[in-house]
Design brief:
Layout lengths: L2 H18 L23 E14 L2 E15 L4 E12 L10 E4 L3 E6 L3 H7 L1
Antiparallel strand pairs: 1-2, 2-3, 3-4, 3-5
């Protein structure tokens, strides 16, 4: 085995081990707060998110799944309209035997804007 092949084998093995033993990290989907930029007039963006939560109580587990679609449209060079449609699925309650349910929850309409030097000076 040449030194170059050995180096590639070591790098591949290290990457594989890093993937196998990587910790699970919680994270939140930022949507509006991720940056101050906008899409620009006529721009479109679709963001899809999915969260799975397991509630544990008295040795029983209940699953909740929140799936969210956020559609963003650039109204102008400085303003975006964001429509967020979340769907919640709640699993059956193992303690009471009550069946699960699902459906839309609060639909959101938001405006996101970026400031420019012209807008900033007009506001000051």
């Amino acid at each position: 085995m040449t030194p170059r092949q050995g180096s590639r084998t070591f790098a591949s093995a290290t990457a594989l081990l890093a993937l196998l033993f990587a910790p699970t990290l919680p994270a939140a989907h930022p949507l509006i707060t991720e940056d101050t930029g906008t899409l620009g007039q006529g721009g479109w963006q679709l963001e899809l998110g999915n969260e799975h939560i397991t509630l544990r109580s008295d040795g029983a587990e209940q699953d909740l799944v929140l799936t969210t679609a956020a559609l963003t449209y650039g109204l102008s060079g400085h303003t975006d309209l964001i429509v967020t449609v979340p769907h919640l699925r709640i699993g059956a309650d193992p303690l009471t035997g009550e069946p699960g349910t699902h459906g839309l929850v609060d639909v959101g309409f938001d405006l996101s804007g970026a400031s420019t030097s012209k807008v900033r000076s007009a506001l000051c």
